[in-house]
TrEMBL record:
A connexon is composed of a hexamer of connexins. The chain crosses the membrane at residues 21-39, 77-97, 118-143, 178-203. This is Gap junction protein. Keywords: Cell junction, Cell membrane, Gap junction, Membrane, Transmembrane, Transmembrane helix. PROSITE patterns: CONNEXINS_2. GO terms for molecular function: gap junction channel activity. It comes from Irena cyanogastra. GO terms for biological process: cell-cell signaling. It is a multi-pass membrane protein. Residues 134-201 form the Connexin cysteine-rich domain.
């Protein structure tokens, strides 16, 4: 899978972000995208083939694998990475709308089309809320699907067509656990950064409005 589009998207949004937003882009690019492409994708590449049960009953192994891994870890992380990056398109589209509007009217309508103020500030805040909500949603979804953030060495399965309770073994559980903790910790860090940037922008806008009102009263 090519991640060039996502890389270009994050680079484009970086121009309109605050300092905290640029840290978020760096975290997503370095600790999520690169870790995913360079290591995590290869670790889970043959997870189905390496899932073994101590019985050769036809269909038993497939049913057990589907029960304990209803969605592939790596595909779920890929979907999460795409979804949490998508709201940033709102900011890019809004800036493009401003620039096209200036071209259409053939005059300068904004001091800086990429400056986060007015409508663009609202769009930026909405994108932060969406990113935070999606991060939390995927963490909860992951926790519910896999009953926690752990990868056991041994799972017991008694589903049909298995004739009795069988032992199934997951390959490289320790290595997978390390990357699992890394990706979950990175997701939590992204939530903290998004909330910090959201609080910072709201506080900054509130101070700006207060100073304007104060100046008007004095005048």
């Amino acid at each position: 899978m090519s991640w060039a589009f996502l890389r270009d998207l994050l680079s484009g949004v970086n121009k309109y972000s605050t300092g905290i937003g640029r840290i978020w882009v760096a975290v997503v690019f370095l600790f999520r995208l690169l870790v995913y492409v360079a290591a995590a994708e290869n670790i889970w590449k043959h997870e189905h083939d390496e899932f073994e049960c101590n019985i050769k009953q036809p269909g038993c192994e497939n049913v057990c694998f589907d029960h304990f891994f209803p969605v592939s870890h790596i595909r779920l992380w890929a979907l999460q990475l795409i979804m949490v990056s998508t709201p940033s398109l709102l900011v890019v589209f809004h800036v493009a709308y401003r620039e096209n509007r200036e071209k259409h009217h053939n005059q300068k309508l904004y001091k800086n089309p990429g400056k986060t103020d007015g409508g663009l500030l609202c769009t930026y805040l909405i994108s932060l809320i969406l990113k935070t909500g999606l991060e939390i949603f995927f963490l909860v979804l992951f926790y519910k699907l896999y009953n926690g953030f752990e990868i056991p060495r041994l799972v017991k399965c008694d589903l049909k067509p298995c004739p009795n309770t069988v032992d199934c073994y997951i390959s490289k559980p320790t290595e997978k656990m390390i990357f699992l903790y890394c990706l979950v910790a990175t997701s939590c860090l992204c939530i903290i950064l998004n909330l910090s940037e959201l609080s910072y922008l709201i506080f900054k806008y509130s101070i700006k409005c207060y100073l304007k009102r104060h100046v008007k009263k004095q005048q």
